[in-house]
Design brief:
Blueprint lengths: L8 E6 L12 E4 L4 E4 L8 E9 L2 E9 L5
Antiparallel strand pairs: 1-4, 2-3, 4-5
């Protein structure tokens, strides 16, 4: 994502159902929402996630997949 001095809002969502990613247990954001952290990943954290950054200049999105492998 491009850096700008305009104040932004960051929204993290699960792509499968569009619900806020922070509604999942053991998920948090750090650095004013710039970092996404799963504290102790398990099968319910598998899937695709999207971060949307919004400000007066526009909108940017990035998505990523998480897979949890059991040992």
């Amino acid at each position: 994502m491009r850096r700008t001095s305009a104040k932004r809002k960051l929204v993290w969502l699960t792509i499968q159902d569009g619900r806020p990613a922070l509604s999942l247990p053991l998920v948090q954001t750090l650095s004013e929402g710039q970092q996404f952290k799963i504290i102790s990943a398990n099968a319910q954290h598998r899937g695709s996630y999207m971060c949307t950054a919004l400000n007066k200049v526009g909108k940017a999105e990035i998505s990523f997949d998480v897979d949890v492998i059991s040992l």
